[in-house]
Design a protein that fits this description.
binds zinc ion; Urease, subunit C, domain 1; 16 helices; globular
């Protein structure tokens, strides 16, 4: 029996032909799309189990979030870090994050995943690099929560071999032995990755859970580890992922420790290949952008983190000109106090334009709404090495998001509904979301899960972490910096 989506206002398939249909229908059987077309739908009623009316809605492939840290959902908008630069921001955050446990991680996954589903995402990466206590148990709690949500998940089983900059020296007086909860001993990291891949990685078509590998940042101090992680990822068929935005001090460190530059180090360590994608990619030189493109790597552009932490603008037009694949990531909720997939796609469409208006030719390189949508759907799927998601066409997984354009926030956007969705609108909430053929959002609400219960559970876990961290360190997280 089939399930039908009927009377779709506008359907953007993101297929190779760039199909856009108005007054359209989609037929789903099991977890896959089997047919689509313009109304009237010819499928006889006796073959239809259920039908959803999406008139007034724009329908797109379920959005794909390429970078996140779900656990950070527990530490949003902390006054002590609101005005901090990246290293000071991390200094304020690590004492809180050291309190993470399975219960908190489960709530964080539910909250982050629910927010993603409610804003149109059906697939998300979670760069899960912090594992205080039993990392295997944290991953198991997360896998269970993602299955409960019905969200397609790529967990990058990360690690923290070192702390950034001078943070180890600054944090040790505060945290003492609890520093061990933040850092992973080098000899344990590869076995951790192997256990995660063996237990959870599913490389089948339509997989709901895949595992990737990657420490929190490029670890110049431990070249053998970087090489081993890349080798094991290749052996297991897993993706590789880490943060990459080489600041001047990072370039200096690569030169001092290894006599090379960051990109050459990654190349020599086996990281420059398809299946590798980096978060941010800001502060790359033109020749480095070209090298990443030629190697088939991708970038997760996280526009709100750039704004929140004051990073230099990511040169998205330069990436696109060089053929470097780019998708969108919301990033962790400590550097994106939101976590809204549609919200950040809207920002990605606009942010790269900042500061370029004086150049008469530059606007030709600005993205259009269709470019931004491709980034978050078909291009992101390719970066993850998947051809089963990111498009609405027969044979692909039924990952579909619908947004209601009948509200006043979209009124007047009659010439281009997709432009209306991405350039107008004050609400990022999806009206209807299907993932793997299962309805996860209907009427703008989660199906089978109480959003208020998820928020309340997450708040309770977050309050407990703040109270414990305050008791241990004396830090007052609610005080404005
Ligand atoms: Zn990040």
């Amino acid at each position: 029996m089939m399930r039908l989506l009927r009377h779709i206002g506008w359907l953007h398939a993101c297929d190779d032909a760039g199909t856009v249909l108005d007054d359209a229908w989609i037929a789903v059987e099991g977890a896959r799309i089997v047919a689509l077309g313009r109304e009237p739908c010819p499928i006889p009623a006796e073959r239809v189990a259920e039908s959803h009316d999406l008139s007034g809605c724009i329908v797109v492939p379920g959005l794909i979030n390429l970078h996140h840290h779900f656990f950070q959902t527990l530490t949003r908008a902390v006054p002590a870090t609101v005005r901090a630069r990246p290293l000071d921001w991390l200094f304020g955050m690590y004492p809180l994050w050291a309190e993470l446990d399975e219960e908190a991680h489960r709530w964080a996954t539910l909250a982050a995943g629910a927010e993603l589903l409610l804003t149109g995402a059906t697939t998300s990466v979670d760069h899960s690099y912090l594992h205080p206590g039993d990392g295997d148990a944290l991953l198991a709690a997360q896998a269970e929560a993602a299955a409960e949500l019905g969200l397609r998940l790529h967990v990058v089983r990360g690690s923290m071999p070192t702390l950034e900059g001078d943070l180890a020296r600054r944090l040790r007086p505060l945290l003492g032995d609890r520093m061990d909860r933040l850092l992973d001993p080098e000899d344990e990291i590869v076995p951790q990755l192997e256990r995660a891949a063996r237990r959870w990685h599913d490389d089948a078509d339509g997989a709901m859970l895949r595992i990737g590998f990657g420490p929190t940042g490029v670890t110049y101090e431990k070249p053998a580890l970087m090489r081993a992680v890349a080798d094991r990822a290749a052996a297991f068929g897993c993706g590789l992922h880490t943060h990459l935005h080489p600041r001047p001090d990072e370039r200096e460190k690569a030169e001092r420790l290894l006599g090379t530059d960051p990109i050459s180090f990654l190349d020599a360590s086996g990281w420059l290949r398809p299946g590798t994608w980096f978060a941010h990619g800001s502060q790359l030189r033109p020749d480095e952008i070209r090298r990443l493109a030629e190697a088939g790597c991708g970038v997760a552009h996280c526009p709100r983190t750039i704004v929140r932490l004051g990073f230099p603008l990511t040169p998205i037009p330069a990436f696109r000109k060089a053929g470097l694949a780019v998708g969108v990531g919301v990033d962790g909720a400590a550097s994106n106090d939101s976590g809204s997939m549609l919200g950040d796609l809207r920002l990605a469409l606009l942010l790269h334009r900042v500061g370029t208006a004086a150049d008469a030719d530059t606007e030709k390189d600005w993205m259009r709404p269709a470019d931004a949508l491709a980034m978050a759907t078909r291009n992101a799927a390719a970066i993850l090495g998947r051809d089963d998601i990111g498009r609405i066409e027969p044979g692909k997984m039924a990952d579909i998001a619908a947004f209601d354009l009948t509200g006043v926030a979209y009124a007047g956007a009659v010439t281009d509904p997709l432009g209306g969705l991405l350039m107008a609108g004050s609400d990022a909430r999806a009206s209807f979301v299907m993932c793997h053929g299962s309805v996860r959002v209907a009427g703008g609400r989660l199906v089978g899960m109480d959003e208020r219960r998820v928020a309340a559970g997450t708040n309770a876990a977050a309050r407990r972490m703040v109270a414990q961290a305050t008791a241990r360190t004396g830090l007052r997280f609610a005080d404005a910096q």
